[in-house]
Amino acid sequence: MAQTGFSFSRLLRSFGYAAKGIVASYSKNHVNIKIHTIVALVTIVLGVLLSISAMEWAIVILCCGVVIAAEMLNTAMEALVDMVSPEWNSKAGLVKDISAGAVLILAITSVVIGLIIFLPKIIALLN
To answer: Are the beta carbons of 114 and 63 closer than 8 angstroms?
Structure first.
């Protein structure tokens, strides 16, 4: 029977499961999320050095979070596809390719947004 209502212990357990998922995303086999995290940290340092506005911070943090979350969803999708279709299957491969493509689109969009925010500030510093 499903439990209803609020339970603090259930809430804590759900946070524990989420933390376990985050840690699993950073395992040695998952290089892309580490790259996205390093880029996010460099972007945050750049934001501090260039004194970006509160609105720019909101956009930068949102971009970083969306890309990292998308990479985690891609990792989960790949694990699920591998579990359901352990042998090579063109449809399974297509699912994985589409999932990876979604992350790529978000990463490229974030780079463009980063250029819009940071490039004018960098150019102003160089002039």
So the answer is: yes
